Amino acid sequence: MSTEGETLLRPDHSSPVRGKIAAFAGAGVAVAVGATAVLAYFAVFDAMEEHELSSLNSRTVALTRQVQEADGEALEGIVDKFRADNPWYRAAVSPAEHAAFIGDPVQVDQMARDGDPANWSRIEFGDEMVSVLRDDDGTTVAVAHNRSDFAHLKSRLKATLAGIVGFGTLLAALTGSVIARATMRPVGRLRRAVDRVSTEGTLEPIDVAGGDEYAKLTESLNAMMETLNESRVRQAQLVADAGHELRTPLTSMRTNIELLIMLHRSGRVAQVPVEELDELEKDVNAQMEELSSLIGDVVDLAREDDLHKEFEPVRLDSVLAEAVTRVQRRRPDVKFRFRADPWVMDADRAALSRAPVNLLDNAAKWSPPGGVVRVSLRAAKHSAVLIIDDSGPGIPPEERDNVFERFYRAPESRSMPGSGLGLAIARQVLERHGATISIGDSDDGGTRIRVLFPAAHSDHSVTTTMKDYWKR
């Protein structure tokens, strides 16, 4: 099927997220624009209302003063002059209580006409706002202003702000779409990279752009893919190396078994000397043991590659004591001297137990009969040091880095039993527990293996007596 077809068939999981981002961004901007428009409307309307009332009140006061200072001047002239100066206003003046009003027929509220004390009142009649001021002498001044223009302006303000809200909402939707596309573009790039890993099996790093959260996520994915790639390489190397190492004992075993079958079928078993048959049987048993040991080491190595159990407090000195006991049973002709300070560390006990056993097996294998393997664990405040010395021939400096490689066997060791995995497994276990391992020379010319356990949780208050004994 074509790539285009695969793209069409593959569900696009980013579309709902992009839609949500666009919706949230658009809604947020729209709400902000709408709220701003509403607040602006009320603020402008209140300001206009305040201005209208202030202007009406000031004109009412001004006309009242002119009437009070008239000194016999005709009130008609004062009112006419006021209307000429204020074309959008109407005015009426009553010189005394119960006197007729001069000027425009302004509706005057009852409060200002019934002989009550001086008062100032405002009242609306339809589109007209009337301000009435009555002083202590009984003079009443009424000024009216038609607010139809104000109502029209208010309507225009509403329409303008509604248009702003509508345009802002449309702009918010477009902005939200652009933000969603820009936000999801790095996610789409990451998704395509992950899809490429799933479909093609490639683990190439993704280009990192910028320093934002997406860049950090890309770096995390690159680190994850690098780890996966290293795991894949280790697995492939393990399979290839294991296949190569298993081929030799299997081929030899197959040859010996085929020889036995051929002798049995031809009836010539009785013609073969007993010594040769015994030797052939020993070879088959030795090859079976070698094959079994190799398979066990490969399984341990694969388990150490993939198993990640949670750590728990473990007494390292107890683990070492058990390892010494196990290895001594296999090599009773070698003396083991063991001394360990109490030391508690967080570890996977099952995995940690494999490392000292492999290290001690290696030391015992190279030690001659009657040789001595010295094991010591010294605890400091923030670290512990494990030293294993053997009485063997030692390891040349140029080969000390190679002995930790998988299936590596020095030329002088190829005639000895072993798979070449013991030290590799030990180093892998120790590194997972934060320890470092190195090789040097022991005091008697053999090999010294030094392991440093850093930043562990030591417990010098352990009530049990310190293991300080010599196994002979």
Q: How would you describe what is shown here?
A:
- By secondary structure, the protein is α+β, with helices and mostly antiparallel strands.
- Helix content is 54%, strand content 16%.
- It is built from nine helices and 13 strands.
- The protein has a six-stranded mixed sheet with strand order 11-12-10-9-7-13, with helices on one face. Strands 2-1-5-4-3 form a five-stranded antiparallel sheet. The protein has a two-stranded antiparallel sheet with strand order 6-8.
- Helix 6 (274-306) runs parallel beside helix 9 (422-432) and helix 7 (316-330) packs across helix 8 (349-366).
- The chain is rod-shaped and about 160 Å long.
Counted beta strands? 13
> What sort of overall outline do the alpha carbons produce when their principal axes are compared?
rod-shaped
Tell me about the biggest sheet? 6 strands, mixed
Uncertain regions: pLDDT < 50 for 5+ in a row? 1-14, 458-472
What is the CA–CA distance across the termini?
A: 73 Å
The pLDDT mean sits at 75
Q: What is the strand content? A: 15-25%
Please estimate the helix content. 40-55%
| DSSP summary: helix tally | 9
- Could you state the order of secondary-structure elements as H and E? HHHEEEEEHHHEHEEHEEHEEE
Derived structural class: alpha+beta
Strand order of the largest sheet: 11-12-10-9-7-13
Radius of gyration: 50 Å
